[in-house]
UniProtKB/TrEMBL annotation, chains A, B:
Name of the gene: thiL
Source organism: Alteraurantiacibacter palmitatis
UniProt binding sites for Mg(2+) 4: 26, 40, 74
EC number annotated for this UniProt entry: 2.7.4.16
Function per UniProt: Catalyzes the ATP-dependent phosphorylation of thiamine-monophosphate (TMP) to form thiamine-pyrophosphate (TPP), the active form of vitamin B1.
Binding site for Mg(2+) 3: 26, 74, 201
Binding site for Mg(2+) 5: 204
Lineage of the species this protein comes from: Bacteria, Pseudomonadati, Pseudomonadota, Alphaproteobacteria, Sphingomonadales
Binding site for substrate: 49, 244, 291
Protein name: Thiamine-monophosphate kinase
InterPro entries on file: PurM-like_C_dom (IPR010918), PurM-like_C_sf (IPR036676), PurM-like_N (IPR016188), PurM-like_N_sf (IPR036921), ThiL-like (IPR006283)
């Protein structure tokens, strides 16, 4: 067991409140009075989650955008309406650009900045963001609701963030915005929430995230790679494992159509000897299926 | 203007929602249905907020305790009941102790762990914590409610964290727990909330925090140093500027007694040429009054 897996295991032993969902989901789901709160927190670290400012000149406005957008994507997967964010920021080069990117993304999605903390530190910078939302539909969609017979759907095209990253890394003229400025699918998530049996965002790669959905639901998911919309059709496995696309992966009862543009990419089957099948081939081990680090 | 002050100023321009309280308060206060949410986020950075693990052998259980306790102290100053926390943790030496300290402090105050994020990084570690609470009394106490004629009160004894830090740094046998394991005054804050005109926790030093309360309230605060309970009576200024004590500083209408043990240390006067007077001497400049960095 990796150091991270061991640590998360010890946190699970603490997080016994049902709102924590055993730390298996993207968000906490907390009942409060007549409302249901949706809470999520993600960190980004220089050199781990973004190219270092000093050596690669990462635009801190993009870092702020992505920090907010990835957390809003977690809310989107719950069909939640964002209520606000709290930001934890380590001061450093590009603070003015960070503030500009923060202002941009919050204005774009009409989300209030509620508070946070600013700290000094040496070494690589880190940044935390907490997003708070309210459920627009209960029961709140979870990863764990997929049922045999359901169809598996995904929004958008996979691999766009990968191509954007490669453009940025290689300094080509190609558009890198899909990597730098992901779009949280808030409206789509809200439209889907009342209909889906399970939903999550594709943050760590389609195969790994589908694997996790199957495990959480106690089913098998069978994907048909030929039907998956790919940004780089010649590199299907890269597109399905790279992650960072923030599309929505969801299951619907058979004969139900999604209320938003999406592609049917597979079916849910009873639990078998593997959680995931790709074109009939069983995938037993999550290692190598995606960006496991960020789980 | 320092880099931090400039950055916070640019955040204030974004944080226009009334729940953010212009980023002048310890917490955001967000109305939601019939409830009022109290939200706060603080970060701790190795080498800035705690002695480095490698060179000083900081016990990561203490770091986890303090990370939670300082955020719960912010909730205490609002009279809030904690609903849960989200933790952002950078992996490193002492993760097992961090998890143990987290379990201890959350069990001690009966607060659920709701979720969070675990990341890898190089260099000094950083940790973020978001605490969510619900108001037990509205209007929620703010820093800004002190009125001329009110009395100024503080719980406990100031300077205990300073003595604890010195014991730890110097490796003496003296008790360092006040520094390592501060106690959030949740019950006291709840008892006080319906009676106070203003309240905050003393995180950055009595003088600096009283200065801020006076500024936020548009009044002057006159403190009588002889009445301030000091852990090191021979070093009154050190005790009143060092911070980290997490006592509650509050104002009450004249002739009102506090419902918890506390000491009357001064009075509120109309706004004059200084926000703060210590034994009649005006203190105009917040620099040097306390631990401004952590604001």
């Amino acid at each position: 067991m990796s150091r991270e897996a061991a640590f998360i295991q010890s946190l699970r032993a603490i997080a016994r409140h049902p709102a924590a969902r055993n730390l298996d989901d993207d968000c906490a789901v907390l009942e409060l009075g007549s409302e249901t709160l949706i809470l999520t927190h993600d960190m980004m670290v220089e050199g781990t989650h973004y190219l270092p400012t000093a050596t690669h000149g990462a635009d801190m406005a993009d870092v702020a955008w992505k920090l907010v957008a990835t957390n809003l994507s977690d809310l989107a997967a719950k069909g939640a309406q964002p209520l606000g964010v709290l930001v934890g920021h380590m001061l450093g080069t590009g603070d003015d650009r960070f503030a500009e990117g923060l202002a941009e993304v919050l204005a774009r999605y009409d989300v209030p900045l509620l508070g946070g903390d600013t700290v000094s530190g040496s070494g690589p910078k880190s940044h935390g963001l907490t997003a708070i939302g309210r459920a627009t539909h209960t029961p709140v969609p979870a990863r764990s609701g997929a049922r045999p017979g359901d169809a598996v759907w995904v929004t958008g095209t996979l691999g766009r963030a990968m191509l954007g990253y490669e453009a940025l890394r290689n300094g080509t003229a190609a558009d890198s915005s899909a990597y730098r400025r992901p779009v949280p699918l808030l409206a789509e998530g809200r439209a889907l929430a009342p209909r889906v049996t399970a939903m999550m965002d594709v943050s760590d790669g389609l195969l790994l995230d589908a694997f996790r959905m199957a495990q959480a639901s106690g089913v098998a998911i069978a994907l048909d790679s030929a039907s998956v919309p790919l940004a780089a059709p010649s590199r299907p496995l890269d597109c399905m494992t790279w992650g960072d696309d923030y599309e929505l992966l969801f299951t619907l009862p058979p004969d139900t159509s999604p209320p938003v543009p999406a592609t049917r990419i597979g079916i849910v089957e009873p639990q078998g000897f593997a959680p995931l099948f790709l074109d009939g081939e069983p995938l037993v081990n999550p290692e190598g299926l995606g960006y496991a680090h960020n789980s």
